[in-house]
Structures are given as structure tokens and as C-alpha cells.
Amino acid sequence: MSEHPGVLERLLSGDVTALARAITWAEAGDARFQRVLSGANERVGKGWRVGVTGPPGAGKSTLVNEMIGAHRAADRTVGVIAVDPSSPFTGGALLGDRIRMDGRSSDGGVFIRSMASRGSRGGIARATVDAVDAMDVFGFQELLVETVGVGQAEYDVVGAADTVLVVLCPGAGDGVQALKAGILEVADVLCVNKADLPGAERLVSDLEEAVELRAVGLRDGWITPVISCSAGKAEGIAEVMSALASHREWLEEGRLREHRSVRRLAQVRRAVAEALDVELWEAAGWRDRASHLLENGKAHYDVVADLINGLRDAVREKTEGSTKER
Amino acid sequence: MSEHPGVLERLLSGDVTALARAITWAEAGDARFQRVLSGANERVGKGWRVGVTGPPGAGKSTLVNEMIGAHRAADRTVGVIAVDPSSPFTGGALLGDRIRMDGRSSDGGVFIRSMASRGSRGGIARATVDAVDAMDVFGFQELLVETVGVGQAEYDVVGAADTVLVVLCPGAGDGVQALKAGILEVADVLCVNKADLPGAERLVSDLEEAVELRAVGLRDGWITPVISCSAGKAEGIAEVMSALASHREWLEEGRLREHRSVRRLAQVRRAVAEALDVELWEAAGWRDRASHLLENGKAHYDVVADLINGLRDAVREKTEGSTKER
To answer: Would the CB atoms of A279 and B312 count as touching at under 8 Å?
Structure first.
């Protein structure tokens, strides 16, 4: 407790060590993070958040490195959070190399941090968004979140961004068919990387067709562009940056406030779910009660009902009580 | 409500249409499923559950098909749930082909069903385990769950199995380094598929080394075997089946009861989390309260604290009240 005013002040004054500390707290679900963030709440929301996702092997890390370069060339500061999918598994070796930078590069305008997703089961999305908030408070102008996974947690992570960039490449998996519709719903910009590989043109046209068939109404008028690039050869980066900038302009001209409200509410919801789980399961003894009921042969959904009904009664009584008090 | 006694009876009498109906309810989070399952609680736990997972392209579906064949050759009935990762994305085309069988094959001893993971965000693990319970109640002896994804939800799904089979293949992603330690913790049997491809021997020896370094204590004495096979050529299937059988014997000789208690408790916990989210967020008006507080500039963690503290008070008062009553 004694430490957090120091960390908050140092964070606000540009001390990168304090930023790293805050993110470590976020990762651990340490309550000190919450106090730091609450103390700097008015500074949250100044940076622009781009979520970068896509299947393993699509070249996300390479593209993110190019994006960092483009931002730095325009003298914009960049904070990057990479979700390290150490559990259960995914191809993240490139990422692994970058992680060794341990949050600092030789360029003070760039901060890169990987989030260990292990040990925070269910809390990855919460911790990652918290970490981006910390970089935002610190003052980075461009906030990038790269997720290597393809699961629900990663979906939640990129869904918290202002702009979602989905990176694909020809030949990975089974192409568009395998991607199904979900990807179009989350993508604000679609990027086909490794555009010189066979099948790239086909993938682009398939995606364009899919966007055409489904985009209407999904994003309130934003038509997801499909961009080709070869991040490994630094080709097409300007086009990607331009598409991202267009989405930003589009949001800023209208829906940004609403977009961010929805996002912030989802953030509260996730944090509530995580806190509730701890609160009830551990502190309020639900684990013991559930174990006891299961051991006595009660069907598991009856156990669930027992727990929930008890809580429902408590909340109702509380609500009625506080209404009377007024 | 009027329908569920019929479904339960038909399910118990071997009507596959009733099974399909029950699973559809499970998928939709329909309360009728819970009543069906509670009515057949004593029959849950008769079948043996094997979770099959691994990165996209490892050949899981092909291997599962071979496993089905091996079980059928030994005259054991098989129920299969495949988690269809339609959102956000993964390579699942092979799976897609199989899905068209729509829960029925020409062999009455096999039931295959894919679970749509879209639309049940956060509830995939709950719905999948429910579906396996339904197949268990129906009477299938061998219960296979195949997950194509690599995220947290899939981890939860396979973690609910008696035996977890992790399928890898050489050249997919970056090998062992990319897999990190997490995979060893969930794997009861490791299988290197496509064993004729270059790099297979190396992958096997790397995995064996990794098991040797980390296995102690992780599974209370079970040493995860590493098996080579080529599912596409039907080679090595007997060895995979034998390794799975060994794990089953090992569990049945000791830890099965404890293992399943832990699993069942996790199942209750997931269902509670899902029910709580609906109960509090929607029914008890937490969404509105959170929106209101956020709009008034409250930091999001302060909003979380506000909601949780209110609940904590209610639960405490309720607990004290019920203690007094006794």
C-alpha cells in the first residue's frame, strides 16, 4: 500500500520502471494496480489502441515491428503488449525473441512488454487491457496489442481495441473457409501478409467477397478494407498504416465515444466476473458447499441452482432493505 | 417444460434423436437440459472421457477417426463431440466435412456431434462438458472430445476429460519451443502424428526430454508417454490406444475418484460463473449501474469495487441472518 503513490507519480512522470511495475501488478491481479489506475483515471483514453490478431504463422510479429517503425518514423511513441500464449500452446518463437527485450528497447519511444497468460486463467483479457491502460496513462500515443492465440481470451483482448487488425496469410490452415464468419465481425482492417506467396490474390478476393456479403450493418457503415503486404520485405506497410488511420478517422468522426463506452463496460464486466469468482468461491465458502453437495450425490446443475438461489435471495433482501432505508 | 420428461425417458431408452435434442439444449444454455441431466445424474460417469487437442493441422480429426475405428473393432460404442471453432478462427475444414454427418453415421455405435462455439461466448466449455454428460447418460462407453482451438476454452474442455491426448506434428509452428511448458501439464499422452515427416524423431526426443525434466510431481507419478503415429496411414494407432488404456488403468487403480471430483467441481464453478453473469449483470441491473457510474467519470476498478462490495454486504447479511434463524 505504501508503494503505490510512488508508482503512480513515477508512472505519470515518465519512469519506465514504474510502468513495468504497474504491468506486473496488473498481470498478477495485484490490488495495487487498481489503485494506481484509479488515481490516473482521467488520463486513460488518450492513446489509440490497435489490436493485432490472426492465426499462428501469419507474420503478426513481423508486421507489428514494421508498424512500430512507421510510427517512430512519424515521431509517435508506441507501447506494445504481446500476449504470450505460453499455455496451452501456439507458435510464438518470433515473439519469444522479442520478449527478451524485457520491456525496453534502445529507443525510449518504444515500450514492448509480453504478458504471460499462464497463471491468470480466465484473467488474460482483464490483465492485458489493464496493461494497455497503464501504457496509456504513461503517455504512449500508439498502443498496440498483439495476440498470437485464436481463442476466446484473445478475442476479448482485441475486442477491447479501438481498431482491430486481422492478419492472415495464404496457405495457413485452410484459408477463408476455415476462418468462418467470426473473423469478419472483429476485423476493422484485414491484412493479407506474405502477399508474394501463391494463393495470396485468391485469399484477397475471397476476403473482399466475404466482406461484401457480410459487412453491411456489422460495423455501422464501416467497410473493412482488405490490404496486401509483405511485412518481411517491408512492402505494403504504408497501405496498412493508411487503412488503420482511415478507421481511426472514421471512428473519431462519430462512434468513438460509444465504441469506447461499450469497451469500458465489457472491461468492468470481466473484472467483476473475476472478482466474483474469488469472492464467492473462496471467501464466501462456495467451494466447500459445492463439494459437500456433490459428494452427497446432488446433480451438478442442482448444486449450481442451490448456490445461485441463495445469492439471489441475499441480493433481493439487500435491495429491499436499502430501499426501505431511504 | 412439458417436453423434458419425454426427452429424458427417450434418452435413457437409446433414442438418438432425444440425445441430439438434449445437446442442442446444452448448446443453447436451455434450462431444460439441466432438468434432463439432473434426472439422470446417477448415470453420469459410466463412460470414459478422452480429450483430444493440439494445434491446427496436427491431424487430430484423422486420428480421432482412427480411434473410433479401433473402439468399434473392439465392439465399444463411441460418442464424439467436436468443438467447432467457428469464432474467431482456426483451421477446421476436415472437421467441417465430418460435421455434415450431423450426429449420425451409418454405424449406430457411433455418434458424432460438433458444437458451435459461436454465440455461447464463455460458455463453450460448459456446453461441451454438458454434451459429453448427455452422451454418457445415453450410454456410450467411449467419449471423445476433440477441440481444434488452442485457447483457454479448449483448455478447459480437455481438462474436463479423464485422459488428455495432445496431438502434435513436426513442422507445425515452431516445435517444442513454441509449445512451452503448458502442454506438458495437460497431456496424459503425447502423440507425434505424421511421424514420417522430417523432424518427427527430433520432436519425439525433444518431447521426451521435456517430459523427463518436468513430469515429476505434475501428475502424481504418471509419466506422460510420447507416441509416434501416422494417422493418415493408419500406422501406430494400436500404440496410441495402448497408451490411452494404460493411463485409464493407472487412474482406475487410484486417483480416478479424486480426479473426477476435481473435474466436477470445476464444472459447477463454470456453470456458476455463467449463471452469475446473467443473474447480476442483466437481472439485478448491474449493467445499468456500471454504465451510470462510468458515465459519471468513475474509474473502472472503482465501479467494480462498488458492485462487489454491495454484493459482499448482501451475502454477509444473508449468512448472518440464516445463522440466526438456526
So the answer is: yes
Q: Which residues of B touch A174 (CB under 8 A)?
A: 91-93
In whole angstroms, how far apart are CA B18 and each of B30, B136, B279? 15, 13, 29
Contact between A280 and B280 using a beta-carbon 8 Å cutoff:
no
The answer to whether residue A284 sits within a structural domain is: yes
The span from the CA of A156 to the CA of B46, in Å, is 36
Assess whether A194 and A101 both reside in one domain: yes
Nearest CA of chain B to the CA of A74: how many Å? 32
Q: Closest-CA residue in chain B for A119?
A: B182
Containing domain of residue B290, as a range? 268-325
Same domain, A207 and A295: no
Residue indicated by cell numbers 477463408? A176
Give domain status of residue A277, yes or no.
Answer: yes
Q: CB–CB of B149/B83 below 8 Å? A: yes
ipTM of the predicted assembly exceeds 0.85: no
Whether A272 maps to a domain, the answer reads yes
Q: Do residues B144 and B248 share a domain?
A: yes
CA distance A222 to A220: 6
Residue among A174, A295, A317 minimizing CB distance to B318: A317
B93 vs A177: CB contact, 8 Å cut-off? yes
Cell 466435412 belongs to which residue?
A: B97
CB contact under 8 A, B90 and A307: no
- Identify all chain B residues contacting A154, using CB atoms and an 8 Å cutoff: 88, 151
Per-residue pLDDT of chain A (326 residues; tens, 9 = 90+): 445 558 999 999 999 999 999 999 988 888 899 889 888 888 999 999 999 988 777 888 899 999 999 999 999 999 999 886 543 333 333 333 343 333 445 678 999 888 765 544 457 788 889 999 999 999 999 999 988 655 566 667 777 899 999 888 887 544 444 455 456 677 899 999 999 998 899 889 888 887 887 654 456 788 899 999 999 999 999 999 999 999 999 999 988 988 898 888 888 888 888 888 888 887 778 899 999 999 998 988 899 999 888 887 777 776 666 555 44
* A311: closest chain B residue by CA: B315
Q: Given an 8 Å threshold on Cβ–Cβ distance, is A154 in contact with B299?
A: no
Instruction: Please classify residue A213 by burial: count the beta carbons closer than 10 Å to its beta carbon, then call 0-12 exposed, 13-18 middle and 19+ buried.
Output: exposed
Using the 3D structure, point to which of B196, B223, B254 is the last residue of a domain.
B254
d(CA B186, CA B209): 16
Q: What is the CATH number of the domain that holds A188?
A: 3.40.50.300
How far is the C-alpha of A39 from the C-alpha of A10, rounded, in Å? 12
Residue B99 shares a structural domain with residue B216 = yes
Q: Are residues B243 and B278 in the same domain?
A: no
Contact check, Cβ <8 Å, B153/A149: no
Element (DSSP H or E) covering residue A114: strand A110-116
Rounded to a whole number, what is the distance in Å from the CA of B130 to chain A's nearest CA? 10
Q: Is the pTM of this model over 0.90?
A: no
**Total of domains in chain B:** 2
Nearest CA in chain A to B118: A182
Q: Are residues A145 and A291 in the same domain?
A: no
